[in-house]
Design brief:
Number of strands: 11
Number of helices: 0
Distance between the termini: 40 Å
Helix content: under 10%
Shape: globular
Radius of gyration: 13 Å
Strand content: over 45%
Length: 112
């Protein structure tokens, strides 16, 4: 079955950086649209960034210029480099594969 395993979350001060990783198994990774979503308590899940098989990327407006999504098909991995983090970026970050497969999530907390 498909498994997506995230890592890299944690507590960081405003202005800091984190790099999230997601390793996938059970899918043809090179063909897959991969994405990062986030969800805060009481809030709807929202798309943060996505990357397609042709390396085309899409970002939500609030993270443009601060976050970078990338993928390594040889490692079946997708990454989210997050810079200049803000308290409003605090959320559980979830890896998504092919729109229907989800990881368990990794918590990112931005606080001083």
């Amino acid at each position: 079955q498909v498994q997506l395993v995230e890592s890299g979350g944690g507590l960081v001060q405003p202005g800091g950086s984190l790099r999230l990783s997601c390793v996938a198994s059970g899918i043809i990774f090179g063909n897959a649209r991969m994405a990062w979503y986030r969800q805060s308590p009481g809030q709807e899940r929202e798309l943060v960034a996505s990357i397609f098989r042709d390396m085309h990327t899409i970002y939500r407006d609030s993270v443009k210029g601060r976050f970078t999504i990338s993928r390594d098909n040889a490692k079946n991995a997708v990454y989210l480099e997050m810079n200049d983090l803000k308290p409003e970026d605090t959320a559980a970050y979830l890896c998504n594969g092919e729109y229907i497969h989800w990881g368990q999530g990794t918590q990112v907390t931005v606080s001083s």
